[in-house]
Amino acid sequence: xxxxxxxxxxxxxxxxxxxxxxxxxxxxxxxxxxxxxxxxxxxxxxxxxxxxxxxxxxxxxxxxxxxxxxxxxxxxxxxxxxxxxxxxxxxxxxxxxxxxxxxxxxxxxxxxxxxxxxxxxxxxxxxxxxxxxxxxxxxxxxxxxxxxxxxxxxxxxxxxxxxxxxxxxxxxxxxxxxxxxxxxxxxxxxxxxxxxxxxxxxxxxxxxxxxxxxxxxxxxxxxxxxxxxxxxxxxxxxxxxxxxxxxxxxxxxxxxxxxxxxxxxxxxxxxxxxxxxxxxxxxx
Length: 284
Ligand SMILES: N[C@H](CCC[C@H](N)C(=O)O)C(=O)O
Hints:
- With 284 residues, the chain is α+β, with helices and mostly antiparallel strands.
- It has two domains: 4-125 and 273-282, Diaminopimelate Epimerase, Chain A, domain 1 (Roll); 133-266, Diaminopimelate Epimerase, Chain A, domain 1 (Roll).
- 17% of the residues lie in helices and 42% in strands.
- It has an 18-stranded mixed beta sheet that branches.
- A hairpin with a 6-residue loop joins strand 16 (255-261) and strand 17.
- The N and C termini lie close together (5 Å).
- 2,6-diaminopimelic acid (API) binds at residues 14, 67, 73, 76-79, 167, 200, 218-221, 224, 227-230.
């Protein structure tokens, strides 16, 4: 039995259950089981996963993120904006520039404060993408970058671009991001043996050099309404394939994100909203 307060938050409709571990002690909880049960949309609170906001020795807070299937990810772009909002709005660190640790890295975040004195939007320095195939990781090629590389999955020929933003992504530009692709092929790509750690998948429609539309099949959670690391990977893939400019507006199912891949330092900057929805007590 696990008893704790939780807060439901979302970034562009990518919703997670957040637990403030500055206040709650989860030492006695099996967090893998907790992530599965609390995320369940019928038997639990409901969400794309569980995010623990933990104290950090090197930053203002540490984010630990678990998918709805209980697996852990290194990074979560929409989640880290919500963690920043929580840390500021709940007085853990009331600074407009925050540092948050995730997956062994420390990320810099800039907060935009609304007229109610609460965080409205957050810009995250997502760092440099990792493109070397074995480091993404993917075994599609032995070394070098996988850019618009044709592979065959389940009888479909797909041109894939593989990018790690701390977690693995496979970006596929398509004329239309249909259910057949996202829901049909997404899970097959996720578990294809050429992605040894599984992968997140982005199906992307190009609207113009500056604007795209994305649907996401996430490793461990299925289709989500947005994915911040995925949107960052799409920004990088758009430049590598010559399809988009370095700055794009990305329309996701639950909202928009702005991405920019800097030519000067190679970092991807992501800006988007963060929303607190409700709080409650879990006692299952
Ligand atoms: N939705 C998240 C990414 C979760 C990725 C997770 N599904 C993984 O296993 O890497 C985001 O906004 O970046």
